[in-house]
Amino acid sequence: MVRPRAAAVALVSALTFWLIGCGGGTTVPPPPPPPPNSGRPNPTLLTTLYRFLNGSDRWSTSGESERINYPLEAQTYYVAGQSATGRTALNRLVNSSGTDHADAVSDVSGYSQDMLLGYPWTSSVNPAMVQLAEAFNSSTGDYALLAPSETLPGYAPQPLAAYGYPRYGGLSEVELSLSAGGVTVESNEVAGGAIWRWNWNGVQFVNHADYGREIQDAFYFGTGPTNPTEAGDRLQFVDPSLRHGSPIIQFQNQATTQVTRAVPLEWDPTLFGGDEDHPVIWDTLVLGKDLELNFNNLGPVAKYTSHLILPNASLGLFAMPAGYLNSNFDRYWTYNAQSKTLVEVTSSMPDGCSTLPNPKGYAFTVNFGGIIMTDAATANAMGIYGVALSQGGSLSEWDMWKLFCWGDGPGESAGDNTTWSAVYGHGDDLLFPAGESTYNVYIITDTLQNVTARMDDLYGLGVR
After folding, report:
1. Going by C-beta distance under 8 Å and a sequence separation of 6 or more, which residues neighbour residue 187?
2. What are the pLDDT digits (tens) for 97-124?
3. Residue spans of alpha helices (H) in 140-285
4. For residues 408 and 240, what is the distance between their CA atoms, to the nearest angstrom?
5. Architecture label for domain 9-33+172-461
6. What is the DSSP string of 407-429?
7. Model pTM?
8. Which 8-state DSSP code applies to residue 177?
9. What is the domain partition of the chain in residue ranges?
10. What is the rounded end-to-end Cα distance, in angstroms, of the chain?
């Protein structure tokens, strides 16, 4: 999957003149020059720990040579890929007969050094971290590194003096479900708490073929390619359980609000020396959401509040959020709630596949309103409502893409998809503050007619 950058800078610059006068938008004077940018932080290169089962011996590895030559049983932790203050060496040990392996940060009687696995931390320096657990089976004498979500019959966990980011064994989904107002959402803990499924009227809207999709937040530093992503990174294995998802800080329902927070991975780890076994984490950032279903008792209207935590003030662009839908939502609309103007723009939607890897899309600006994607009959629609920055809201612009590049039709794990993004900033015009900031949009699922009616309700309520 080629993941379109939310309001990609090349797309925005090419369309700036066109979009200001199009689709019901209002001409806005250029913003004043931004304050100096204090620069982005440095991310951390990680190592992924895996576990194999060879006969009765469970043993860990962290490298490609063993990963591709042995059947994997589990993904257990992320640890640092390099030594530094506050980190310790995690070694794989082997007994004298070569029949059992163990993982340790100190000596184990009867075992000797076999390989270096990575560098976990000596304390929990990030709220997403957990203590590593090495389990022991007294019946077989076997040691095994356990993911925190795992239980193995006959094995008793024993904590190590080491900390890392938890993974989920062989699981590809750990779902948190919430229902209200006729809508059911499922967020996936394995994928940073991103929205994995969105159900209304028996219809599932969201495409999650890779970790660049879902409904999730994504931040971009400046106008460059660096891209902390809520769900995880782009280096995907065939086995979904071995993808690199972002670690979770918070993952819970509070009444009719779902709350998730993640420490984001870099979408393209190769920018910082990463690869399929070495994700890159922005460990001083947090991305997440408060999703309030049945907002203001409006039924299938959800308030989506994006949360962004930065260590320093920074220029950037924020997809808050972006959503990837199944390809049967192939009619595209804009709506101006101030003038109650609905416009179908399907015929103006570029073929995003013809310009890969930088797909063209459709950009739209409006003071009060949003974009809508529907099926052919308009009986099932997802609309996203927001308010422009000039009116006290969070929106710089809306973007939509049509990406039917694979020809495999609609489906939640299909390649073909249709995409929207709510965008704050263009990378060089707005300074995001240090600390926590929040941004609001409203997601509506209903018929096309009822989506526009609910947008009218939101406009009448004066929400921001």
Report:
1. 175, 176, 193, 194, 195, 196, 251, 258, 260
2. 999 999 999 999 999 999 999 999 999 9
3. none
4. 19
5. Distorted Sandwich (2.70)
6. ---S-TT-S-EEEEEEEE--SSS
7. 0.92
8. E
9. 9-33+172-461, 44-169
10. 33
